[in-house]
Amino acid sequence: MFDRRILGAVLAASVLVLPACSTLGNNESASSEGSSGFRLPSLPNPLGGGNEVSVEGIGVNGYLWRASLDTISFMPLAEVDPFGGVIITDWYANPDMTTERFKLTVYILDTRLRADALAVNVFRQVREENGGWIDAEASTETAYEIENSILTRARQLRISQLED
User: Fold this and answer.
1) pTM (global) more than 0.90
2) Residue ranges in the chain whose pLDDT is less than 70
3) In sequence order, what DSSP letters do the residues of 88-102 get, joined into one string?
4) So what's the pLDDT on residue 58?
5) What is the spatial distance between Cα 42 and Cα 45, in angstroms, rounded to a whole number?
6) Is 31 exposed, middle or buried (0-12, 13-18, 19+ CB in 10 A)?
7) Strands (DSSP E) found in the chain
8) Residue 26: how many CB atoms within 10 A of its CB?
9) Total structural domains in the chain?
10) Order of strands, sheet of 86-89, starting from the edge strand that comes earlier in the sequence
11) Element (H or E) spanning 6, and its range?
């Protein structure tokens, strides 16, 4: 089985910048769009058969994809690959704490809604006295909390889809 870091490096190397938002039709319902501008693909009822979720238009689990974009929507996006399941943010500094900044890479590794289908890497930098940035260790707890937030949001999206 591949190590997540190796798989992450391979996925990151193959990231293509896709203008995903420009492919959305003008007649699509705005009710299923979140702050990210991406539309949740129509998914079949998971209770009606096989274990895998069929996703139209993207190569990963639609709930995890949408939940990832919703959860990190406050950060600027640098690269987005809905077919490979990779989201890379640009550096983000909290306005209340300008001495550090963060960057995220989110990997969606499966078409099923499972905890092990998601991996988040957090990169952190701190400001030096001369104004430059140096790499610093990010807490593993931070990545864990972001993953949990994404999974919680994905479950909410799935439940709301089942109720419709």
Assistant:
1) no
2) 1-57
3) EE--B--TT-TTEEE
4) 73
5) 10
6) exposed
7) 77-81, 86-89, 100-108, 118-127, 133-136
8) 4
9) 1
10) 77-81, 86-89, 100-108, 118-127, 133-136
11) helix 4-13
Name the residue range of residue 84's domain. Answer: 4-163
The string of pLDDT tens digits covering residues 130-162 is 999 999 999 999 999 999 999 999 999 999 988
User: CA gyration radius for the chain?
Assistant: 17
Please tell me the total number of residues recorded for the chain in this structure. 164
The dihedrals phi and psi of 105, each to the nearest 5 degrees, come to -125, 120
Q: Which amino acid is at 58?
A: I
Q: Report residue 58 as tokens.
A: 């993207």
> What is residue 7's predicted lDDT score, i.e. its pLDDT?
45
Structure tokens belonging to residue 82 = 């809905």
* Amino acid in position 144: Y
- Residue 3 CA to residue 71 CA, distance in Å, equals 25
Q: Which two tokens stand for residue 70?
A: 């919703």
Burial group, residue 140, by CB count within 10 angstroms (0-12, 13-18, 19+)? exposed
Distance CA 149, CA 39 (A): 20
Beta-strand relationship, 133-136 and 118-127 = antiparallel
